[in-house]
User: What shape does this take?
Amino acid sequence: MNMEISRRGFLAGAGAGLAGTTLGAFGFGDVEAAHAAAIRPFKLANTAETRNTCTYCSVACGIILYSKGDLKKGEKAEIIHVEGDTDHPTNRGTLCPKGAALLDIVRAKTRTLYPQVRKPGSDKFERVSWDAALDRIARLMKDDRDKNFIAKNNDGATVNRWVSTGFLAASATTNETAWATYKVVRSAGMLVFDNQARV
Amino acid sequence: MTNSWTDIKNTDLVVVMGGNAAEAHPCGFKWVTEAKANRGAKLIVVDPRFTRTASVADYYAPIRQGTDIAFLLGVINHCIRNDKIQWAYTKAFTNAAYVVKEGFGWQDGLFTGYDEEKRDYNRSTWDYEIGPDGYAVVDETLQHPRCVWNLLKQHVAIYTPEMVERICGTPKDKFLKVAEMISECSSPTKTMTSMYALGWTQHSKGSQNIRAMAMLQLILGNIGVRGGGMNALRGHSNIQGLTDIGLMSNLIPGYLTIPTEREPTFDVYMSTRGFKPLRPDQMSYWQNYRKFFVSFLKSMWGDAATPENAFAYDWLPKLDVPAYDVLRAFELMHQGKMNGYFCQGFNPLLSFPNRKKITAALSKLKFLVVMDPLQTETARFWENHGANNDVNPASIQTEVIELPTTCFAEDEGSLVNSGRWLQWHWAGGTPPGEAKHDAWIMAQIHLRLKELYRKEGGPVPEPIVNLDWRYADPNEPTPEELAKELNGSAVVDITDPNDPTKVVVAKGKQLVSFAALRDDGKTACGCWIYSGCFTEAGNQMARRDNSDPDDTGAFGKWSWSWPVNRRILYNRASADVSGKPWDPSRKLLEWDGTKWTGYDVPDIAPNAKPDVVMPFIMNPEGVSRLFTRAMMRDGPFPSHYEPFESPVANVVAPKVRGNPVARVFRNDFEQFGDAKEFPYAATSYRLTEHFHFWTKHAHANAVLQPEFFVEISEELAKEKGIKKGGMVRVWSKRGSVTAKAVVTKRIKPLICDGKTVHIVGIPLHWGFIGEAKKGFGPNSLTPYVGDANIETPEYKAFLVDIEPIAGPVA
Amino acid sequence: MFPPLPNPPTAPTPPRFGDKDLIRRSASSVTPPAQRQTQVAKLIDVSKCIGCKACQSACLEWNDMVEEVGVNVGVYDNPHDLTPNSFTLMRFTEWVNPETQNLEWLIRKDGCMHCEDPGCLKACPAPGAIVQYSNGIVDFVHENCIGCGYCVKGCPFNIPRISKVDEKAYKCTLCSDRVAVGQGPACAKACPTQAIVFGTKDEMKTWADGRIKDLKSRGYKNAGLYDPPGVGGTHVMYVLHHADKPEIYAGLPNNPRISPLVEIWKGVAKYAGFAAIGALAAVTVVHGLFSGASRVSSHDEEKAKEMADKPPEGTPRENA
Assistant: This one.
């Protein structure tokens, strides 16, 4: 896993009133014993682990993604389980009802999968290629900017603004995405720019 | 947050007001339960509803939504009258002693300088008297009639317990109980934390709600100390980061501001920034503004930003209005003045007020681009979904392009939590279908636009074609490359000013912190407050050492927090004027005679003498502000204003409707309802089972809370003949929704100024796409009005009517 | 803070208990292990519970269960009852404390109590369909289940549910698969406020003592532990603020015990022996006994007592 760490820090201070959990002592039985018929095989065996952060609120709980296949080894990885990261100082392995069901959002039936275009007046989306979608977007932006860009205001001051197209940014993207977005949006002269912090 | 989630364990009293931490932030709320279990801390909840946070509280007091300022000023008044003030802190670390200019006053609900026509104030009297030495005049005896303390005392005097009951509907005995519990925290060895969220921001006077609590925390001496603070529980995983990096109309990363058109040159722009100290020897850290700003411009335009062209200052767009926030954007769209709009991971059709207006506005666009990992209602605003989205696609001429993006699990990078920790995460899954990273998409848009400008030319192409885009693969900048840019690096060899032969930072190397920034173009830095996050020592945000010496809750080696890995802001205020901790058992910093030492990175120069340099270094005063001068549009003190749609009149300012300087567009005035037509006080909120409009796509969450409902009291249900589980219609001046009814003891009618006020609670998680049952959001009903300072819409207090309708009764 | 559960292992880990640790097996006998494993328990502190349903969510996810998306019926409880796909459920009660006139929102996580003396197991006529390990976990073995529903009748807490899809009984396993690799149940791992903790039964009792002390200091004079003796104690226990009135928590039984009818059935089984009569016959025999409701009426009790006093007629004694 990324950034292996020891749990020393926690266990030393944990458990006011208790000497620390005795979880390790649950089983005295022969470790060679076969699984009893009733007990499901442990489903995380041989999965790859990845440290991540819950995508919902700003508590920013540490999570571990368990996948079949390992991206770090260049493999295709299918996430099969998500669980709270006990090593994380804030959430200590716990998750709320949203976080505990993160797998359902990763694998939602309503994920977007392909670029689509809905033409004016149409009642449906049509699948298009990435190139077609991006070329179209650049064209629409350029045409609007060319037509409506304000280089100077009535007083003759340089204002270099473009306010007939706007951008609403996502506050669940990373800082790095945010910075790339900022550069692209501002360099175009856009001022109609906002994000979820507003609401 | 001034503090952090893990610091909450150090508190003695938690006040949850304007938020619902147990439901909206359950894993952060763990530290409340820890404080209760280990320190015997108490939890107070003040809320119109008996929430799940209230279910584990030691004390619950009801309040009518939109009246928090009256309640909080009532508590301040209680503390003043009962001498429950942390005097040493208040005298040394606040502007209590500062003398305010003659002419400032408050009358009939308005401060001096109101212009009804403009719905704005002339704020010239809202400032300190400046002495002949050029510094603010202070009266340390607090005797001067115009010193801040006396003005405050006078301003809050009307908020007696009786007045609080009249306005808020909080029974006097319950208010007094809360006020007494809070006032005990004026002891230097007792501390209180304020945990708030959108319950305070989503009002036409949201910023002042928060001000009111901040003032209370200051006079109790609870800012800068362990277990104290003003703790905004932020909503989205990186809403803090997006704010820090300034993805807002008027911001530049690190809380710098976009120039207005009245600032056509670099020098004019700088002349109103970089404040000089208002008192002798104070740090007034914004004096470094120019370094931050020039380094930002260098990170935008690289070699094209030169001293000769004022570092490409002209290429920054200049504002003609205070901000093009979302309310203004959709107003312009609605007027047909906008052609294109991008929604990156945002669902305005359900998120912005007055949905009818939002639909009409989107329908007037030429094109709409939606980038999202999930299918959103906004991307399908043109699609007919019966009563849930009653539109005619044929009549909507907007071209919509939907782009599939990766989600958190397939992406790498840093997110900033409420406590300002920048935590790096790694991708663990392969993206589905053809989903792409947002950074790739933004790069593609930029590169294509640049190519078009190179080929075809057009107006002012320079800022686009010269944008610094020197990434190893311009098609997809990596998270590391972008993070390094945010941190900042040396553009050329930087030498020691005392010894020009000595290179301090070699060209191209990462900077250690913002202290290394230069105002001459020799450094580039995307976001000065992030400087230090990715240094030559590596990616500090990826640090995962969870050790915590002496169990202070600081976790200084886990990830990295801005600024300079500081965990508690204003932490120098945790010690008295001589530098001794107010509470030795909760030591944070201490003056050892020559420097500051302790558990956190000092929020002051390490050798700044404790009795000379005051703790609030970003303020030119060096102290905190009980009186905010002219920095807020609606007053230097908070004042009670009713919501724009209120069930009762404003008893302290009968002539004033709403916040007198709140943002309202002309046509939206006509869309406000009054209590005669819409008698019930509605509020909107989240439920713990869901996250906004996302988790209706997650099957398990759809199971846990499947269907849209509204909550009302047993009393209102009886009055209106509404049955538990029955169908109701709820409507406002702007729209109508149908829902199941949850009839509960957790909502009670309140008596405000002798009038019974019924509350209708409207949760917000349903739409017409996903696994959950189709439903509505409260934004079908909410008014189009924004906070006076930050334009946040007033979702928390509005008027509706309700009636039972035929439909399935469970 | 109670020491949090560690992150689960991903290296294949041999299970720490299995068939040789069985202390009970439905409708059959087992050779008890020489040494009993440390008894485990889950402690649900109702006073710390914020009703967030993380336990429900984590349970659905860990057990790969797909529950139906229901409707709102005017309350927060969803689903509206335990189902074959929902092993646990938050039950919400709005209760006005008659002493203080204050509203208290009582939120109890319902689910299998893992009784030390399990009524479901005792009632089960299918050999090996319900087992109890020496650590206290009561688990269902679905391949042996015949879907008769007697476990439902035998349970004093009304927990197991029969699937309409495969006609088998389902309930909480206490995440036996996780406990077997040194983990705790998924609900306990997820619980944001540690209202659910997991450890040895002794640890849980000690931890509960501390919690009860805290509650008493906050004015809950009847705070206490729910570990009902009528079923030999449970491996899922509650801390209640009003332990004198468990029934206010969505009908938590005041003094749960196994229906006397189940004891009779045990008698029948004892005399008849499964090998002799076979599962199908056993079902026929017990059908009459369990056709009523799971709640025990006084009439039932009298009848049961009478029957228990003498062996059913025609039972071959030599198999006893």
